[in-house]
Amino acid sequence: MSTESNAVSFSAVFLAKNPPSDIKISQLAHWGKTFYESGLVRDLEGNLSFRTRLGFIISGTGIPLNGLTPETVAEVTGVVYGLNKTSVYVKGQVVPSRETILHAQIYDEWSSINAIFHVHDIGVMHQAEKLGIPVTSVEKEAGSQDLAQEAVNLLKFNKEVRYFILKNHGVIALGTTMDEAGKLIDEMSMKVQK
Ligand SMILES: [Zn+2]
Fold this sequence. Notes:
By secondary structure, this protein is α+β, with helices and mostly antiparallel strands.
């Protein structure tokens, strides 16, 4: 099982150091707390984001999901893919989640997706086949561009999919709203508990 660490595969370029001021951060915090308290993430696991006018707001690296505030989330306003290192342009006080590239690529590709939630629902992962949940074909390192590519590939082949598994790692839920993505995660985890 992979665990999230503080290492990120990109360079964070801070355009502004003031915390993002979006009213929806409280909704992100609500879902982070919900997942943390229900045990779907532990310690520093998981990452959550929602689309903004400039890009998206995402939980910070090294921040537990039960502690999301304007000071512990970052707004990503652009990603530039370099040959050696990818640069992520940020407004905020923290380095955005190590899975920022994965979130960025999904938002770039699918304009109807406005929220992306990633947690480690071990129960769902163990019963993926029984529940009929799609799984990425190859395990990739957490935080890598390859992992992002695996997720994009899966979604290109399964255009209606809004919930899937990153092989041997965790789950991703997509929504047109945060509530949609959050409820998907809740519903799937309840299916396993029955
Ligand atoms: Zn993870």
